Amino acid sequence: MGTHAGREGTVKKGSNTIAEILSYQITETAGTIEGAAMGAASKTVFADEVSAAGSMECYWDETDTNGQQALTVGAAVTLNIYPEGATTGDQYGTCSAIITSVGVSAAKGGVVTRSFSFVVNGVITWGAVS
Q: What residues have CB less than 8 Å from 59, skipping those under 6 apart?
């Protein structure tokens, strides 16, 4: 099936599923450099270094010691991102990442949430769950 419900996804720190995930996003980008000589009528653009970064929001779970509690600012972690679930054959991405920010948010009448931002160290490798 080519379309998946968001509820199917999960994120793991190594082999540990991060608890209470509400949402996550990850974006891969490529820098560009111009290669047109002076006097050229149009730009010539070349791909440069590739980078990736992302974020995640969860309901606060202080008992998730191997997931949320291990995502501290400056921590180097392995993240495994499963957009369609973690069943054999599902696609997932794996990467080394540095946690760049951790936040907590609460509002009257709401549930306490945590947010995490990260940058990828290297590239995201995509494959199938075996």
A: 19, 20, 22, 111, 112, 113, 114
